[in-house]
Amino acid sequence: xxxxxxxxxxxxxxxxxxxxxxxxxxxxxxxxxxxxxxxxxxxxxxxxxxxxxxxxxxxxxxxxxxxxxxxxxxxxxxxxxxxxxxxxxxxxxxxxxxxxxxxxxxxxxxxxxxxxxxxxx
Length: 121
Description:
- This protein is α/β, with parallel strands linked by helices.
- Helices cover 16% and strands 40% of the residues.
- It contains 2 helices and 10 strands.
- The strands form 2 sheets. Strands 1-5-6-3-4-10-9 form a 7-stranded mixed β-sheet. The chain has a 3-stranded mixed β-sheet with strand order 2-7-8.
């Protein structure tokens, strides 16, 4: 294999951004129903009622510069720009009276909307 044909290498970390067991379990359930998808991509985009919003998408593979967060063989990936907004965050999955959703406990957020999908810094 030439240098250009080599598979990309990934950075696998769990210290800066963590994935709870509940989140990993829910990702496992979702991926089981989505052939060809291998991870949950978590991104931070501009917008939402507080300035930034979380975006969750299924992806086929991590990009070479993604942070790969792994728990029990389940992966979530975060692009380099979003990593800066998510340092120290915990990705969780909750099932409560408000419904089921991924929730991010982000120590960088100074405020967030009521539903927890947007935040400000």
